[in-house]
Amino acid sequence: MNTASKIALVTGATRGIGFETVKQLAETGVHVLLAGRSRERAVEAALKLQSQGLPVEAIVLDVTDTATIAAAAKEIEQRHGRLDILVNNAGIFADDATKGVSGQSLDTWRTTFDTNLFGLIDTTQALLPLLRKSQAGRIVNVSSLLGSLSEHQNPASFIYEFKGVPSYNVSKSAVNAWAIHLAHELKDSGIKVNTIHPGYVKTEMNKAGDEQGGELEVADGARTSVRLALIDNDGPTGGYFYFDQVLPW
Ligand SMILES: NC(=O)c1ccc[n+]([C@@H]2O[C@H](COP(=O)([O-])OP(=O)(O)OC[C@H]3O[C@@H](n4cnc5c(N)ncnc54)[C@H](OP(=O)(O)O)[C@@H]3O)[C@@H](O)[C@H]2O)c1
């Protein structure tokens, strides 16, 4: 793919995997809109990359706030006229793992789904008209292996016992299901929709107090999103990936 003239937007990009995804896309020459729910944090993050000479600009987009999504869509339309790549990366982890599967409050379920599922759908729907104006639109949904129903049902899987954070896991299963449906609707449009597991990555999400959980460095955690964002026209759609590996839904 000729990346030099591409326009991308990455949600939840003020830190972690999203920030690194912006960096790696920009390093290939893609013009990247670094989206954050706080203008201050988005501008600060974008400045770090601009100071390295990378083509990055900040944009405000809170995936739980339809007005900010609409404003971002309008701004992109006016400034760029289209969008080539959307990386739905924003996500939260709100479960209290001490409460088990049946003990999470409905508030926790709603909060998690508002960001991880409904926010992702709202953002995608609002930006789809701009992706349709691209020669080769790409949508990457940052899910998790924890959303895989096949793995959760497989006693041999290492995530089999990882059921104590159900609102997070189920929100990602729902993202996977949504992605299959959207990829089907868009299968003849030229827009490719893929879903990824970034790996178990050393980010804020996996920090508990002073303990930094995670196995992969953030740079590696961004690689699967970047790969799928840059696939050619003969690349996959409707898939679920971790690096080059195809994951079971
Ligand atoms: N880390 C892992 O091991 C791992 C594994 C599997 C999947 N994932 C997925 O990877 C994605 C990125 O996670 P991460 O590990 O990089 O987490 P992180 O370091 O906690 O970063 C999350 C990002 O999402 C943003 N965000 C939260 N709510 C938002 C909202 N309503 N609107 C817009 N942005 C919002 C945060 O922005 P603020 O600065 O405003 O809070 C932050 O930039 C998530 O979807 C996560 O579920 C991560």
Structure commentary:
The chain has one domain: Rossmann fold (3-Layer(aba) Sandwich). The chain has eight helices and ten strands. It has helices at residues 16-27, 39-50, 66-80, 106-131, 149-152, 166-185, 218-221, 223-229, and strands spanning 7-10, 31-36, 56-60, 85-88, 138-142, 192-196, 207-208, 211-212, 240-242, 245-246. The strands form two sheets. The protein has an eight-stranded mixed β-sheet with strand order 3-2-1-4-5-6-9-10, with helices on both faces. β7 (207-208) and β8 (211-212) form a beta hairpin. α3 packs parallel to α4. It starts with 6 loop residues before the first strand and ends with a strand. 45% of the residues are buried. The structure holds NADP nicotinamide-adenine-dinucleotide phosphate (NAP). Residues 11-12, 14-18, 36-38, 41, 62-64, 89-92, 115, 119, 142, 144, 197-198, 200-201, 203-206, 214 line the site of NADP nicotinamide-adenine-dinucleotide phosphate (NAP). The site of NADP nicotinamide-adenine-dinucleotide phosphate (NAP) has 31 residues, from α1 and α4.
The Cα radius of gyration reads 17 Å
Instruction: Describe the main β-sheet briefly.
Output: 8 strands, mixed
Fold-level CATH name? Rossmann fold
Query: Kindly state the mean pLDDT as a whole number?
Result: 97
Strand content: 15-25%
| Strand order, sheet with most strands | 3-2-1-4-5-6-9-10
Core attributes:
single chain; 249 residues; alpha/beta; Rossmann fold; eight-stranded mixed sheet; two-stranded antiparallel sheet; globular; binds NADP nicotinamide-adenine-dinucleotide phosphate
